[in-house]
Design goal:
It holds the Pfam family Glyco_hydro_3. This protein is of the alpha/beta class. The chain is 39% helix and 11% strand. The protein is globular and about 75 Å long. It starts with 5 loop residues before the first strand and ends in an 8-residue tail after the last strand.
């Protein structure tokens, strides 16, 4: 049964959800007791042999276009020449001596596993042919859920908020270990995950389901579990986005968000997951392009803020691992300073890796000139290089940076991993409404189901449009099912078509995504419900849709629209899996945000 609404203010929510975490996670972290860096003497000798140009290159992580390191397609050569001034990855390494390369789908780096492994090997070969013979740290954003760079046939795990709904730290650790093993087999050794942001703001469009939830203590536990999972697979995990991007409504890709937490709120709400990551031995931490006036009265973006990067992260928390910026091409970090100042200010603030500047040539020369002029000391540059080289050494890249086709074949997308993904996903789907015990649907009567709704741009983990994937999953479970995509903004004509199409069906299943007060998705669900045909809605992004949808008999939340999570929801509808997921965030009334409809931990079962 639905619980009685709870009256809370937003300030109360910010305070109450963090109280338990404060007691366990907010004691001062002892001086950072890194293991003795036994190889520092050797690494310092390597640094001592490097030219200034080579040193500058080591702190940069750049994109590059193409499927291979030396022979990309002509279109990729053209893009590289236009944006980077080089033809391919090998020339990029030779010219700028970069310390790392980041893979993207849009950069045509991640077509299929053997190609990815070949690209990684080609990059490492090019690096070892340079005078410095320093291997590269290859990275990507493989958060799983709605942010995946490497798709099928790699194993795709549930995303962070789905894992938060699962609630099992052992499952979170297992998912990260499997994901890390597969990345390592592809030659990718630094993953920009897990997300450590605490999503206390339902209007947060940039983090949302990328967060494990709204309870700092629960998020901290999941983050620590994933750090252990990734790093047990010889992958450098990266908790992000420090000092915490969970309470924003602006997207730092396009603007500069402000976090108006007090210092006390920051320490109770935002800090626990990062403290947990540090205690778990996190290899790297990514910065946020956000302003937190309580931490830096000068209101510099955190990425460029010495009070935050050095004062809080290095000195207060005692963290001496690698700090990497979020992409320097994002507007959040470019709003206040020019592209020639941002990389210098970031290094002065205390970061170590400069990720994906919009113009590598401008950024690289800016750092070079800052050292030559004395604004940035060579000793400060050496500090960051040493941290980067320590990480490369820890990952075994100096010993052997290569992967093999055999590693790919025996690791990536193997049946054991795929079964684990399905098992973990079966514990994530959350049932919020089930009027008259409509669900599970009875397979014995082979109900005729019409699947409608959104087909958002598919993450790499989805083999087709979500409505098609969901329809196929129901069909494979024995149902008669057909598809009518209606989109995120169905027109009046499309809604009329849907109403006509549902006639004679036993059930309508509508996939929804981020329903707003004015969304035509509301009209669609209301019109379908008015026909008398039972309507089941499945929110495939943030779980707050339930507060705005009129008339559904049953409501499910999947927290993503990848194949893994859609198939799990289909199994729940069919009664092949019990909906044991529990809300990791509260859902407030749409017309009264001070009233909680469904609290953290809410969920129905069969």
């Amino acid at each position: 049964m639905q619980q009685r609404p709870l009256r809370t203010s937003r300030r109360t929510l910010l305070t109450a959800t963090a109280t338990a975490a404060a007691a366990a996670a907010l004691g001062a972290i002892p001086a950072h007791a890194q293991p003795a860096h036994s190889k520092d003497r050797e690494l310092r000798r390597i640094i001592g042999r490097m030219s200034l140009e080579e040193k500058v290159g080591q702190v940069f992580v750049s994109r590059v276009y193409g499927e291979t390191a030396t022979d990309p397609a002509q279109a990729d050569i053209d893009l590289n020449l236009a944006q980077l001034g080089v033809r391919d990855a090998a020339e990029l390494i030779a010219k700028y001596h970069v310390g790392g390369i980041i893979y993207f789908g849009w950069a045509h780096n991640v077509r299929e596993p053997h190609q990815i492994a070949g690209l990684s090997n080609g990059i490492q070969k090019a690096a070892l042919q340079q005078d410095s013979r320093i291997p590269l740290l290859i990275s990507t954003d493989q958060e799983h859920g709605i942010v995946c760079r490497v798709g099928k046939p790699a194993t795709l795990m549930p995303g962070a908020m789905a894992l938060g709904a699962n609630g099992s730290r052992s499952d979170a650790r297992r998912a990260a270990r499997i994901a890390g093993r597969e990345l390592a087999a592809l030659g990718i050794r630094q993953n920009y995950a897990p997300v450590a942001d605490v999503n206390v703001n339902p209007g947060n469009i940039v983090i949302g389901v990328r967060s494990f939830g709204a309870d700092p203590e629960a998020v901290a536990g999941m983050v620590a579990a994933q750090v252990v999972g990734y790093q047990s697979a010889d992958i450098a995990a990266t908790s992000k986005h420090f000092p915490g991007h969970g309470d924003t409504e602006d997207d730092s890709h396009y603007s500069l968000p402000y976090i108006h937490h007090t210092r006390e709120e920051f320490e109770r709400l935002d800090l626990p997951p990062f403290k947990a990551a540090i205690r778990a031995g996190i290899d790297s931490i990514m910065t946020a392009h956000i302003v937190v006036p309580a931490l830096d009265p000068a209101e510099d973006p955190a990425t460029l803020s010495r009070p935050i990067m050095t004062g809080v992260l290095r000195e207060q928390l005692g963290y001496d691992g690698v700090v990497v910026t979020d992409s320097l091409g994002m507007e959040g970090v470019r709003t206040k300073y020019g592209d020639d100042r941002v990389p210098v200010l970031a290094l002065k603030a205390g970061v170590d890796q400069l990720l994906n500047p919009p113009s590598l040539d401008v950024a690289w020369n800016a750092v070079l000139n800052a050292v030559r002029s004395g604004e940035l000391t060579e000793e400060r540059l050496d500090e960051s290089i040493l941290r980067v080289l320590r990480l490369k050494s820890k990952l075994g890249l100096f010993r052997d940076p290569y992967t093999t086709d055999r590693d790919v074949d025996r690791t990536v997308g193997i049946p054991e991993h795929l079964r684990a993904a399905e098992q973990i996903a079966d514990e994530t789907t959350t049932l919020l409404v089930n009027t008259g015990k409509l669900l599970p649907l009875s397979k014995s009567s082979t109900p005729d189901v019409l699947v409608l709704g959104v087909d958002p741009a598919s993450p790499s983990g989805t083999t087709g449009p979500p409505t098609t994937v969901f329809t196929k999953a129901l069909t494979e479970l024995g149902f008669t099912a057909s598809t009518l995509p209606t989109g995120t903004a169905p027109t009046a004509a499309k809604i009329d078509e849907a109403v006509a199409a549902v006639a004679g069906k036993d059930v309508a299943v509508v996939l929804t995504s981020n329903v707003s007060a004015t969304s035509a998705q509301r009209t669609l669900v209301g019109r379908l419900a008015a026909t008398g045909v039972p309507v089941v809605t499945v929110s495939v992004n943030r779980p707050y849709d339930v507060a705005r949808l009129p008339g559904p008999k049953a409501v499910l939340a999947t927290y993503s629209w990848t194949d893994t999570e859609l198939r799990a929801a289909a199994r729940v509808i069919a009664g092949k899996a019990d909906p044991v997921g529990r809300l990791p965030v509260p859902v407030q009334r749409a017309d009264d945000p001070a009233t909680t409809l469904y609290p953290i931990g809410y969920g129905l079962s069969y």
